[in-house]
C-alpha cells in the first residue's frame, strides 16, 4: 500500500500483535485498519507508545488541503473530520473500509485529549448540552404547555358529550 499523504510505500509494523501500516522515513503517517485505532487512542494503552516517534524525512512536505485516497480501497476519498467535539485534532477516515489515517504527530495529539472513553463521552455530552440545551429546554416547556392545553380540551369534551365516553351508549365507534 502507498501512503495517502506522500505516496511512499507503507511498511507493516506489528505492535502488540496488531499490524499497522506506517510511513517510515516518509511523512510519518499511520494507517489503522477497521477497529485498530481504538486500541491506540488513549494514553493508558501502552500499545501506542512505539508509534509516537516514527522516523520521518524532513524533505517531504505534505499538503493537508489536497484530497487523499484510501490506501486500501483505491480511488475512494478519505473523509477529513475532527476526532472529537473539542475540534482540536483532525483525522482521515475511509467510509468504505472504516480505516483511519493519522498524519505525523496526530496520534500523540489524540492521546492527549481524553484519558478514557468515559471522559470523551462526558465532553461530548457537555458540548451537546451547551449547543442544544437551551433550545431543548424551550421545546420541553412548549410540549408541556401543549399537553396541558390538550388535557383541558379533552376534559371539556367529557362534560359536553358524556355519552361519548360511556361504553355502549352510542350507535357508532368501536366501544
Instruction: Report the sheet-strand fraction.
Output: 5-15%
Number of strands: 6
Radius of gyration: 28 Å
Strand order of the largest sheet: 1-2-3-6-5-4
SSE sequence, one letter per element: EEEEEEHH
Given the C-alpha coordinates, what overall shape results?
elongated
Estimate the helix proportion, in percent: 25-40%
Query: Tally the helices: what do you get?
Result: 2
Counting helices, strands and paired strands, the structural category is alpha+beta
Mean pLDDT: 81
Major sheet attributes: 6 strands, antiparallel
Q: In whole angstroms, how far apart are the ends?
A: 70 Å
The figure for the number of domains is: 2
Unreliable sequence segments: none
Summarize the structure in short:
It contains 2 helices and 6 strands. By secondary structure, it is of the alpha+beta class. The model has no long low-confidence stretch (mean pLDDT 81).
